[in-house]
Write a sequence for this structure.
């Protein structure tokens, strides 16, 4: 009996090694997990228009029972003239809590299993997101209820970013980390888009569901995380990725004294694997907060992200209003067009990853994009309302330049620094480093929209954004100089945590 050949699909599946399947599955799963985080954050921006809206439009549809009250259809306490200040309180309650909590989240993430940490964080995020929506059904009209829920949600949402970046960093080597993470980082935009669509389905009929449904989704994804997330390749018999920095560090062992080996057995175990089994099985301790700050580049990239994220989040919160005011579009159309900024951000993140992988210059890639962004923002402020085609082109281009460095720093750069050669094989720094970088950036995310609301006109807002871009560039100058010296063949020396 003649047997047929294996089906082409099966041959294709078998052509990929087991390690690649697990690695691809982990990338997809962490993508979906963090998509659900952003999906649950988005409803507040959609529901604002329902909490305080133009009640005359309801009267025009035939409901004339409250013609003597312009705010009869609003949701108290957002029915007063200070509703903008109250909305600002909700935004900043979340952002400030998120920024503060992020510095502690990484420390906990290094000391707890990532799977458990993410699962608990996602379940709590689902709970607090839903509690905001239950305010509709419980008829809650106290601003303090919503502020407290936002603060609690901001704190528990800090479990997400350090944990997923640490998990992805455990599975990926440095070869194409920038390119892969540039694509992977699009989960932010995907989550924002899905969150907008889901919240929009219920906002006009029962805005509470705009929060309850996303809350249920992130809670379900928390259960999926518990059932399927694999933290380390070794846990399923896969080979760990090879990091270039670790390979460069190995030859230094031949110059070490016996005293250095005895005082640092973990390093010898990681690189040589030839000492006693007792030392080999000893787990390296998690790095301290101050120890993470001493890793070369952490402080510079953290401060750079503060200003880069300030620019990005100012656009996130104020761009629809800016488009509406300068292009004279209604709020819905302005909101739809503003998503092109996120599209540009996806393209910019991928481009930044490809260029930084090819050149090996993460800091230089960020520096070039930021320095080009400054004059482009100035140009956008003056021609942003000159025609539909100009709006589309400038949004995509500015989105790429603004969000490209932001995406690169929070993903590939954070993973690189968390596996820096000065750590000597200790992989338990990824979560803490990621939390420090993103936590510092989140301070900018809270300050930027607040300052934009206090400034008197759009020109001043754009001057603030341009100044922030320039400051971000200046903070990377030392690292850019170091990378350029490396390209020119000048060696660098390592002294502990200090790189010269």
């Amino acid at each position: 009996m003649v047997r047929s050949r294996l089906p082409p699909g099966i041959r294709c599946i078998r052509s990929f090694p087991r390690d690649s399947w697990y690695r691809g599955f982990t990338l997809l799963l962490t993508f979906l997990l963090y998509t659900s985080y952003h999906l649950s954050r988005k409803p507040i921006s959609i529901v604002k228009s329902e909490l305080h809206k133009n009640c005359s439009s309801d009267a025009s549809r035939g409901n004339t029972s409250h013609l003597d009250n312009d705010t009869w259809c609003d949701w108290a306490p957002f029915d007063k003239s200070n509703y903008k200040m109250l909305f600002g309180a909700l935004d900043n309650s979340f952002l400030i809590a998120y920024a503060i909590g992020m510095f502690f989240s990484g420390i906990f993430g290094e000391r707890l299993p990532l799977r458990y940490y993410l699962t608990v964080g996602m379940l709590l995020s689902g709970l607090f997101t839903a509690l905001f929506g239950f305010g509709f059904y419980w008829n809650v009209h106290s601003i303090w209820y919503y502020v407290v829920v936002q603060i609690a949600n901001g704190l528990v949402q800090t479990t997400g970013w350090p944990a997923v970046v640490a998990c992805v960093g455990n599975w990926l080597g440095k070869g194409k980390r920038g390119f892969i993470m540039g694509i992977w980082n699009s989960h932010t935009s995907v989550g924002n888009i899905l969150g907008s669509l889901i919240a929009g389905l219920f906002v006009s009929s029962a805005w509470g569901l705009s929060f309850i449904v996303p809350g249920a989704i992130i809670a379900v994804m928390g259960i999926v995380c518990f059932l399927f997330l694999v933290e380390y390749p070794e846990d399923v018999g896969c080979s760990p990725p090879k990091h270039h920095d670790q390979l460069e560090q190995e030859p230094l062992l031949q110059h070490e004294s016996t005293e250095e080996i005895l005082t640092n057995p973990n390093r010898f175990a990681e690189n040589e694997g030839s000492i006693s089994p007792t030392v080999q099985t000893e787990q390296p301790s998690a790095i301290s907060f101050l120890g993470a700050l001493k890793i070369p580049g952490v402080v510079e990239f953290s401060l750079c992200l503060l200003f880069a994220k300030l620019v990005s989040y100012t656009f996130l919160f104020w761009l629809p209003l800016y488009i509406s005011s300068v292009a004279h579009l209604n709020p819905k159309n302005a909101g739809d067009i503003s998503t092109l900024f996120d599209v540009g951000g996806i393209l910019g993140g991928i481009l930044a990853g490809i260029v930084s992988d090819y050149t090996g210059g993460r800091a230089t890639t960020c520096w070039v994009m930021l320095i080009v962004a400054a004059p482009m923002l100035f140009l956008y402020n003056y021609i942003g309302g000159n025609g539909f085609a100009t709006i589309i082109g400038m949004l995509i281009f500015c989105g790429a330049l603004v969000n490209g460095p932001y995406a690169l720093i929070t993903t590939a750069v954070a993973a690189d620094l968390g596996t820096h050669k000065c750590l000597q094989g200790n992989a338990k720094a990824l979560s803490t480093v990621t939390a420090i970088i993103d936590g510092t950036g989140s301070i900018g995310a809270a300050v930027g929209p607040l300052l934009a609301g206090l400034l008197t006109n759009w020109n001043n807002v754009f001057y603030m954004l341009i100044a922030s871009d320039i400051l971000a560039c200046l903070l990377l100058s030392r690292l850019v100089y170091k990378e350029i010296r490396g390209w020119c063949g000048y060696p660098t020396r390592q002294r502990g945590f200090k790189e010269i």
Summary: Residues 388-418 form the longest helix (31 residues). The chain has 23 helices and two strands. The mean pLDDT is 79. Strands lie at 494-495, 498-499.
